[in-house]
Amino acid sequence: MMNPDFIKSCDEKSNITHLKSMKHFYFLLTTTLLSVLSFAQTEGASKIYGYKQRIIPGMVRADDNGREIPRKPQYNYFIYLASSCKVTPLEIWINEEAYSPVINNVSTTPVEYTNPASGDNKSKILVPKTSRNVLQLSPSPNKIQKPTQKGKSLSAKNELVIIYKRNGKLYYKALSKLNELGSLNMQ
Known about the structure:
With 187 residues, the chain is α+β, with helices and mostly antiparallel strands. The protein is 25% helix and 41% strand. It has an eight-stranded mixed beta sheet. Strand 8 and strand 9 form a beta hairpin.
């Protein structure tokens, strides 16, 4: 016959082992859940659409000797932020430069663009039809004096970064490369 103390000892060891494995399970579950939630905060519930259009000047500037004065390329930017809830854009980073956003509400989607210089009336869809709130963002002429460090680091790897606030928390969206639209000749 088995010793009852031995059986009790085995049951206690089994319970302790079970408790330890449950602690590990709950630790892994909690860690995974927190990781998923923190990822959701950096992503946010939004999508960005970004386009640039090179502007070709009509008049060529020349110096006193008639040589063309080189110009820095200029662009029109078409930037949209579509979100399922109310957001407040705070910064726009384009090519590592921080700007305050000029914000316009878009009332209907899809958003289409037709290049007046192209000669054809074919339009391009910039933002597809959506039930989300869509904001058009334009960089203001004023650059931000004290931009965020995370915006600066993200802009080193991305052509476009948008920083916005939702429910008191900051969110960051990045686009590695802006889509190019046909150039606009200013003649």
